[in-house]
Each structure stands twice: as structure tokens, then as C-alpha cells.
Specification:
This protein is an alpha/beta fold and 367 residues long. It is 44% helix and 17% strand.
Length: 367
């Protein structure tokens, strides 16, 4: 049972995990359907979205703030009329942040599936800003990890309405030289990735970098963050780098639609988020045999890594630095952990398994 007319709602068309995953799901599950996409904000994936179906962006960054609000309301009203005439059979909301679009576009007549990529403070803040919206609109919920499912049920979402479907490594992952084949090198690269907000633990990542460099020397380690943005948080990130005296060893790489070119440089991946529902970049690093270090209390990453990586019991820059130094000093450990991670992704996070689960969720919503 598949819908022939699907509306997909996104918060943004950036190259971060949720938008990339959403567009891949639409291409795979609804390749034969008629799909229309509405996004709150644009981004580098706009052309990708447009290839899937007619795509509308409601908010344009170049407009003056007052005019942006007027333009957004006009665009939303126009889309609501068009979509009402089109009569969609299914509404797929790619994240909690996109959920208000259901009301704005008057899409309450079709079943709604909400894909939840948020947990913890993000869910709490959304509920405070939009009371009752999470509970009242969706018919089915897709949680990207058991941690997210737990938080949804705690909010009052019926357990039987929630399906845990983990993210998966996208089909476009290229063949790159994995860390397990590199052996000893004079300079090792420690990677990090994501929109540089507080949730990604950029402060923890930099403090761990400072300690690891102090212990091993500036000629042994280089730290590369993928996903830097030229906004207020990005400028704060750059300032933190300078204040810690790390300009010579930290490289900030802007977000790109070719992330694997950068992943190919990583010998170690340090996931330092304060909270993370599930991490596509962790899975991608593991798939490329890059050993991953993360924190247990964070949420999804520790569930993804399991015993095929380094899970630090508490959030600690010192603990992260210890793990980085330990792996940097042993090519054998990097090979073993990298290989175990790649095997875990193949076994538990395959695209085929996740897409099959998602299809069952969509069918249940339609039924």
C-alpha cells in the first residue's frame, strides 16, 4: 500500500543528516509516486529536492526581516491552496522543526508521519514553543533511536504509535582508503562534524584537542571540523579556536555536498555532542573504518557504536583527550576498532533494512 501523492515537509535543505536522509527516503520509497516538497528554509540540497518533485522554500535569507515574514505568509497561503487542490494522500514530516508547516499549509486531511530526529532539550523547547503539537498532529512516529522513542513516550506519545528506525549510510558512500589500511603516520587527523551549535559539543571537542596536542605535540595531531557555517555560532567557534591557541592545528571546513572527501582524511572521529538523537556522520565514519569515540550519556551515538568503538562513560574533555591519544599511539587499535565499526554498520544499519521498516510505517499510517 503506497501513496501516489506525497507531501514532504522539511525544516531546511542543508547537507546535515535529516535533510539528506529525507531526500534519499523519498527517492527510494516513493520513486514512482508524485512528490511535492515544502521546506521552511533553503540550502545546498535545493536542486536535489527539485529533481524529486516540485519544491517550494517559504523563507528566503536575503529578505529584510519584516518583509521575510510577509513573504513567508504569502508563499504558505499559495502553497496551501495548491496542495489542497492536489489532495495529497500522505504527509511526511522530516523533523519536529517542520511540524508547524502541517497547520500552516492546512494539511490535516491526510495521514501524517513524523520522523523525529530530536530528543532532550530540543523536544522540550519545541513543546514549550508549540504546546501539544507533537501529540495532536502525527498519526505515526518514526524515532531514529531508542533514546528518542523513550523521550516521545515520556511526553505522552502512545508506545504503539512509535517505530524505531535507525538512520543508515546513504547509497552514495564512495570507496575511500579506510583508516585501517593507513598504518603509522607522522600526522594524524581527528575529525568532528555538524552544524557548530552547543549541542554538538564544540567546546568539549576543542578542549580535548587542546589537551591532546599538549600531550603529543603540534606535529602529531591535526583537528578538522566539517560543517562550519559563516553565522554567529560559526564565528563563535572560530573565536574559541583562537582563544585556545589552536589556530595552527584546527581546520574549520564549510558544509559541503561532498562530505566523504573530508571523511577520507580522518584517522579518528571524535563525537562530542552533549545530546544527539542519532548520528549519520558516526555511521558514515564507521562505514569507512574510521574508529569512533563518543560519550555514553549523549543518546544515540553510543547506541550506534555499541562495542565497535570507544564509548566514554561520562562527558569529559579529559576523557576524550585520553581516548584520542590512546588511539593515536596505536595503529593496531585503530585498525581493529575501524574494522569492527565497518562490520557493525553492515550488519545493523543497512539501507535496505531501514527502508523496509519505513515502508511498513508509511503503510500503517495509510491504513
Amino acid at each position: 500500500m503506497k501513496a501516489s501523492r506525497v507531501v514532504a515537509l522539511l525544516h531546511e535543505l542543508s547537507t546535515t543528516g535529516a535533510p539528506r536522509l529525507t531526500l534519499d527516503i523519498l527517492e527510494a520509497v516513493y520513486a514512482e509516486a508524485s512528490v511535492r516538497i515544502v521546506s521552511w528554509e533553503g540550502g545546498p540540497l535545493f536542486d536535489v529536492a527539485r529533481r524529486i518533485g516540485p519544491t517550494s522554500v517559504l523563507q528566503h535569507a536575503h529578505l529584510v526581516r519584516g518583509w521575510a515574514g510577509v513573504s513567508r505568509r504569502i508563499r504558505a497561503a499559495e502553497q496551501a491552496v495548491r496542495l489542497g487542490r492536489w489532495n495529497p494522500e500522505l504527509v511526511y514530516v522530516s523533523s519536529v522543526l517542520a511540524l508547524p508547516l502541517v497547520r500552516m499549509l492546512r494539511l490535516r486531511n491526510a495521514p501524517v508521519v513524523l520522523h523525529v530526529h530530536e530528543l532532550g532539550s530540543a523536544l522540550e523547547w519545541f513543546e514549550r514553543s508549540h504546546p501539544g503539537l507533537i501529540l495532536s498532529i502525527p498519526d505515526r512516529y518514526v524515532a531514529v533511536s531508542p533514546a528518542v522513542a523513550h523521550d516521545l513516550v515520556r511526553m505522552g506519545v502512545p508506545l504503539e504509535a512509535v517505530s524505531v528506525v535507525p538512520p543508515y549510510v546513504l547509497a552514495s558512500v564512495p570507496e575511500v582508503l579506510p583508516a585501517s589500511t593507513r598504518g603509522d603516520q607522522p600526522m594524524l587527523v581527528v575529525g568532528g562534524a555538524g552544524n557548530p551549535s552547543w549541542t554538538k559539543g564544540i567546546d568539549v571537542w576543542l578542549l580535548a584537542a587542546r589537551e591532546a596536542v599538549d600531550r603529543m605535540g603540534v606535529d602529531r595531531l591535526r583537528f578538522v571540523w566539517l560543517g562550519w557555517r559563516d553565522n554567529q555560532e560559526g564565528l563563535q567557534f572560530r573565536t574559541m579556536v583562537s582563544r585556545l591557541g589552536l589556530d595552527a592545528v584546527v581546520e574549520l571546513v564549510p558544509e559541503t555536498d561532498r562530505p566523504y572527501d573530508q571523511f577520507a582524511r580522518f584517522d579518528i572521529f571524535a563525537m562530542t555532542s552533549w545530546e544527539e538523537s542519532a548520528s549519520l556522520v558516526v555511521l558514515e565514519a564507521m562505514a569507512l573504518a574510521i574508529p569512533v569515540i563518543c560519550f555514553a550519556p549523549t543518546g544515540g551515538p553510543a547506541e550506534e557504536v555499541g562495542e565497535a568503538g570507544v564509548v566514554i562513560p561520562a562527558i569529559s574533555p579529559h576523557g576524550m583527550a585520553d581516548a584520542i591519544v590512546d588511539l593515536a599511539q596505536s595503529a593496531q587499535k585503530r585498525r581493529v576498532i575501524g574494522s569492527a565499526g565497518a562490520e557493525r554498520v553492515r550488519e545493523h544499519f543497512s539501507r535496505e533494512k531501514s527502508l523496509a521498516k519505513l515502508t511498513r510505517v508509511f503503510d500503517a499510517a495509510l491504513a
